[in-house]
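Co-fold these.
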Amino acid sequence: MEGLLAGDDAAIRALYARFARPVYTMGLRLLGSREAAEELTQDVFVTAWRKAARFDPHRGRLSTWLMTIAHNQAIDRLRRETGVTRPKLVLVDEIPESPQSVDEDLLLERDAALRAIASLSDAERRLVLRTYFRGMTAREISEDDGIPLGTVKTRLRSALIKVRLANQQKELS
Amino acid sequence: MNCAAVRDVLPEFALGVAPSGDANAVELHVETCAACRKEAVDLQRAASSFGYALAGDGAPSASLEQQVVDAVHEVARPVKHHHTRGRRTGIALLVAAVLVASVGIGSVFAGREERLRLQAERTALAQQTAVANLAAATAGLAGANTKVLTGVLSSDSGAGSGSALTILTKDANDQMLVIVNDLAGRLLPLDVSISDTKGHTIDVGSIPGLDTAGGATRAWKVQGSLDGFFDVTIRDAHGKVVLRGTLQVQTAVSSPSP
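Predicted complex below.
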């Protein structure tokens, strides 16, 4: 991060090598085009540079910090667009099983994420994906599905806690 | 917002879909509440699993890496290419830029445009912190041959904020740095000028673009002296004032940051 702060070429490239692909693929799925995903990726790294001094490794992992920046920026863009341009709902089972030429660390992260998500029921998975990939709020889901807002919030919390526990178990093993 | 209310919002916050007012309140709360902060970080990490689940599904073009490197350099460029003494000043400017650009945003909770629309009380705190951080970052520069002035920039309409800094040298090799936030939607480029009390104005430079959060950091080496120039104005392409502020000579350094 110090290298990033200094605008050091090697540091930027190292960070890019580690995180560009997950940021890009998230952007691709949320925003629906390569151009938008690449714009997002560029903005995320510039934002990371601007906010690097505030990153505290004791408060969270670098990957979570960067992915949170990326996701929030993608959701912001998604919300600015009309409903017409929103991408279709992305389901986990649409994810290709054999990604091409991906580095090993990324594959490990991806496999861990998939295992964690597998701990959810279908209903929980769909609920979380509607928020994470479509930017739907709990209230919007509540209105769409005709279920109480409190119930949606409780289910979201329950789903995230399951994923969190799966992540923790993986770290302990 | 108390802990119970924050916990109620945290799942949506972690998933990036909390209403902006709630998200701002959560960010304020977790700055001082370790328990809720831990919960928020854990849930955000869980949420990021959904992003990682897609990793490998497509790859950016080969040219993107260089574009990213260039984009980061573009932000940093004005302060990177100075020789010896100028370089020292440039590094300080860079540090100051990072400090101020990141003021007021939660350590882990960064990025959302809505969240950058700070509530008035938060903006005030951020601006105080910005000045303190600028002062701290440049404390070593203010010496016999150098004078540093800092100040906050604000908008009459309440939207947007920023900070500015000038470094005055005896050889009139002066520099100015400006950081703006939350100016998305303004007609670009933004023109930066600085005036003295006699009505003389120097057109320092322009800000050609903003990032997605409406922010930008620019620094210029001014051909001439900025001594006596205190009033900073930033106008949009229509000439409308979007931010203004007055610089003051840096004195004592204090940090209101938590």
